[in-house]
Amino acid sequence: MAPALEAVEFDGSSSSLKRVCVMDAGGCLGSSLVYSLLQRGYFVHAAIQSRVEMESMERRIVDNKNLRVFHTDPMDYQSIVEALEGCFGLFYSFEPQFDQPSYDELMAEMEIRAAHNVLEACAQTDTIDKVVFSSSATAVFWRDPSDSTPSLGDFDERNWSNVNFCKKFKLWHGLSKTLTEKTAWALAMDRGVSMVSINAGLLLSPDLTVTHPYLKGASEMYKDGVFVTVDLKFLVDSHICIYEDSSSYGRYLCFNHVINSNKDAVNLAQILLPADISSLPPSMMVGENKMVPQRISNKKLNKLMANFEGGATLSATE
User: Fold this and answer.
1) Hey, which residues does 22 pair with through a beta bridge?
2) Closest CA to 223 of 292, 121, 172, 283
3) Three-state DSSP class for 302?
4) Could you report the average pLDDT of every consecutive run of 10 residues in the chain (318 residues)?
5) Which of 64, 57, 62, 59 is nearest to 42 (CA)?
6) Backbone dihedral angles phi then psi of residue 215, each to the nearest 5 degrees
7) Which of 73, 138, 252, 265 could form a disulfide with 284 if both were Cys (CB 3.0 to 4.6 A apart)?
8) For residue 135, which of 224, 78, 203 has the smallest C-alpha distance?
């Protein structure tokens, strides 16, 4: 159990920072962001989808007067407006809460609608200065090999996944994240909302399993040199750095490890499939530790974070 955070008094200086909203604060990333922001002196509106997660947040972070917890449904515009009231910034991520057994094409419709509601609410909230929008690397690197239009060089934040390719091979995570992020960018530009997006690799969270929709097509990612992962602390620090740095702009690919060797693949498989790693391609299990050339770059983010001093991050298991 993590220790309770002491309330931080605002002294009116720029170092006291401002009031921000974290949505979805009940998830692994969101709850860790709340904890780190409170430690840095922010007043935080934690927007949470489920009552159970609200109670969990209140138990873990007690007696902190700089925290307000809101029950917010991304499909309910009014609940979003209430959570954003008085906030200067928004950290937005969305993990749908529903009883569907798999991540499928319908997910894109749900995520697009949620992003539309949130960006529209930000446009109607006069105090909002900046939105940090959590997307995924799967919105960057899926493309049709037969398409000669894209550059054959490394992938970076200038690339977008091919929607038709994602549909053809049922890469629903890439499809959903691509369409949702494009919707968010279109609304942000149309409504005059200042937005920056973070395209994160696979989050190595304590609850990660082989069923995570990001992993659909993992073998192809590996062979293409674009299979990237990110630690929770690095991802949280990246969000805060991008929010605090006035020079941040556009999209940022966020990862701190590339799965591009047999050893890396086996180590990840042991996390995902501790009892059985037989589902890995045989080429990863035998022979020399072959290296696959890395073809994805996060130089833009690394340059921004060069002098960033991060704080503690609350693990989802604490």
Assistant:
1) 46, 91
2) 292
3) helix
4) 40 56 92 94 92 72 84 93 96 71 80 95 96 98 75 82 95 95 97 97 89 92 95 97 96 96 87 63 56 93 90 50
5) 64
6) -80, -5
7) 265
8) 203
